Model the fold of this input.
Amino acid sequence: MKYYNDEILSLYDEYLMSEIIEQKIFCIDKTSSISPIISPVDTIQSRLVENIEELGLKYLLNYQTQKIGDVMNLFSFFDLYPYINKTEPYKESIKGISLNNSDKSSEISRIMNDRKSIRKFSGKQISFDNISNILLNVTNSRFNEEDGFWHRNISSGGGLYPIDIFLYAHNIEKLDRNFYKLNPINKRLSIVDLDSYSKIKNIFPSSFIIDFKHMGGIFLFSFDYLKVYQKYGELTLSLGLVEVGLIAESIHLLSTSHGIGTCDIGGFDKPLCESVLKLDGINNHAVYAIVFGDRIC
Done:
């Protein structure tokens, strides 16, 4: 970029430059005999998959179907849970320095103490304004005039922001029942596919634990693996999952402040979810989800 005068580059020129640079950056394997500018990303992905030495990518590629577990295992766990929970105090030492929570009245303290997993919902329609506030506050994309870069308020390794947020709108004011992708810089929701909503029951099968019937919708998260790998190598998976956790916690707290109940979902049909969200399952992976709805309690 040193050879170009920023003042005479149009936005389209900058876009073309970013495309060329992206192709060059994504050459993360041994490609000395191939021009990095003309090598398509899918070719690089193919070379990576043929010889999987990177454990993080290998994990994601083999983690094809995330399932909560069979009914018998869940019932057995619920029988054991009271005993597991009640024995926790006996495992901790009574020695040490006593802590005192002197902050019980601040707004953030109230919200954090009010937050809990909500699995049953009233079925009341969710306000579009509340969803807008949650999505924009959790990303808060803004351009910094001083350094010339886009920034967000979520910590991200190298400021790469490899996590994309999708929304399945089930019962949200002003939104048709469908999948949407958040565009944080333009602050818009774009429809993923007009017919994608019909597959929601196959991605998230009916559960006696979570009330999908009366939910407001689901937040879904995808992870652009190569975007981080180009800089951090074997740290990639760790950094990506940490970022998902940071975003998820912010969504939980913001939802609680708006009276919306949330619950994390780790078990869903990963390949089908990736197909619906138009993710390739090699570079981009569906990694997590949060169901939400109007709180009953």
Summary: Residues 60-85+113-294 form a domain with the NADH Oxidase fold (CATH 3.40.109.10). The chain is about 40% helix and 15% strand. The radius of gyration is 22 Å. The first strand starts at residue 142 and ends at 144.
